[in-house]
Amino acid sequence: MRDSFATLLTVRQSDYTTIVRQHQNRWPKQTVWGYTFLPFKNSGFLSSRSGGQSEIEVEFPITGSLVSLIETAMVSNYLFQVELRQFNPPDGDALPPTSVVAASYLGQIVGASYSEAGITVSLGSTLDPVEASAPPRRFTTALVGRPPKL
Amino acid sequence: MTTSGLIEPQSPSPVAGKGVMQQELADVDVSDREATSDQRVISIGAPIPIVFCKEENGRGGTWVSPPAGLYGATTDPKNGDKFAFGMVVSEGRVGDIALADIYKGASRLDKYPSHKTVFQYGGMPTSGFDFTLKNVVPGDPGVPPTPGYWVNENGSTTDNFQLRSEATWQRSWSNITSMSFNFNMHDGGVTQRIRVWAGGSLVVETGYFSSSSPWTWSSSFSRTTVTIAFDVQRYFNNNSYNRTLSASYTYQRWQDGDPGIPPTPDVVSDLPLFPGQAGSYAGMSCLSVAAQFKDDSGAYTYRQQVRCFVRNGMQVESVTSGATESSNMFPDLAYFLLRKANPSGTALIDKASFQSACVFCKYHGMLFNGILAANVNLRDYLTRISKLFLLGFIQEQGLYSLRPLLPTNADGSFYTGSTNPEHIFGKDQIVQGSLQRSYFDAGQRQPFCVLASWRSQRDSFFGVNKTIEIRYAGTAPDGPFEQYDLTEFCALPNHAELVAKYILAFRKHVTHTVNFELATNVIALGPMDIIRVDVDVTTNAGDPYQDSTYYLVDAVQEGPDGSISVEATHFPVNASAQSLVALDIVNASFDINPNDN
Fold this sequence. Notes:
heterodimer; A: mainly beta; Pnp Oxidase, Chain A; 2 helices; B: 597 residues; six-stranded mixed β-sheet; 6 helices; 36 strands
């Protein structure tokens, strides 16, 4: 029975295909399934609601490279994929050879805060339809000049 | 709590007559009046409308009343009024608009003389269009001059002279070229003299003579004034002595022609209005239209709204083919709007679900032929409209998805086989005491009649809203009625009919919602998943309660304590685990009035 979990983080560029970083938070100082260790934690990513929006929070330790990464990610709309992997814990210190995805979340940074305790980023969708309106464009003077006055 | 499958009705509209709602009557009235309403103009800050449609097999497309960005008009009672409108039809590139699909007021544009139309993407056609506002006051055409001519005239006179004093008879004629004169002084004994002047020169002077014989004289001139004087001398100082002079004459007189009245030119003045100033029109489809016509009706036809029937609306990326083309698929519109909201966020859209949604919509003929013009919140819009395509707009694992409200086969048809739940939860998974059921009001489950409005249109007739009544066969003949408005995009009655059947079946069979909490060791679970909840309750009262109920997941939330809360809506099935809602939509008997399919 699979009853152990690990959380994986994949940071991708906005084209989704280019991977920037991959981290796991379960096995210190080890690389598992291609993911290096980073002591991050997330608020829970199963939040999902019909027709609505959902956000999750991920807390990172403060390092120079992470601060730089997050600042770049906010500007370049990097995608953060958080996965909850479920696996059978092998005996001893061996690493699990396989796992299944129990849950996942894909989002972009919609907010971030910094304190001495760490960096907390909120992941959501910057194409958030709560804020967006349709139709997307409006008549402006640059587009249609000055309209008639009759 | 959100209930994924429930479609809320619009506010009811009173019935005006059998099968016709008051709103429907009003729409017909508005359609007739709007044909002659004034031309709309662009309002800065207003949304740029999206015309989203595609004509297939002679059905589809939509009427558009585009606003004008440039406005030209000339009122000219002599030569006829003219108009020229430069209008924005839609955001993006729409298909070309044929002349036969353009109307001015209630008449097709090609019925007007000197009509002209140019369609352009990314700019406003201006060449050959007079976007100015003028009023023409016609000048006086004048009276042409007429030439002079010769007139042969004659005349006579008879005068009595009192001879107690000298007297003179004198007369002048102008423009004379010839004259014959014949004097006859009746009775004798009168001393008389005759003088003739031509052009002021004395040409004849007879001197005084006494004779009762006629005196005749004739002469020709070169257009001059002739004056003839006849003098008599005093004869007796007695008023009773009178004599009678008679004279007759003929002459040729030159009659000058009429110089006429010279014409005055038309006075053209600019109206104290502003015809508009062009912008870039980047990324928009524009249409310029002009015509000239005689308007004797006083109806100011030049002001009337230009309309066009757009057969192929804005071109978007098809989620199915990837091609850029006009579409009538709601998932294509949703995909366009979501990508516009954030062009870098394409990875956050579950494109595969949109493709499946297209297959579903196409199979059932649920097509989008309409205009998105009013500013709406994107989430609200997609959530509201997707349900009217029997789709759920959800966010699952961070991805936006469109999923049919009922299970479907690969070809998009409703799946009516045995339902296989994606998860089964029992007492081992559900936190004890967390499961709660909430039943819908009994009133909601009573038989009722759905009034589904759709837009009937033909390319020769403006769109008119129609309403079809749908009820389970033999039920609710006199209501209650619930109204559902699909007119903003639905041009096919079968679409409205299908949605109505779903609403009726949902309300008949779906009885409650449920929420419960799960232990944390749960595999992936998301909205629109079908689950089965097995309940096995044994109390001190004995008679244990056991139940297996199917549900459609509405939402999954992780609580602060790490537990997973699930909200779901009853998914009714029969003993063979077949969806009752799907079975009714496919097989049940409904009364449909009128049946326009």
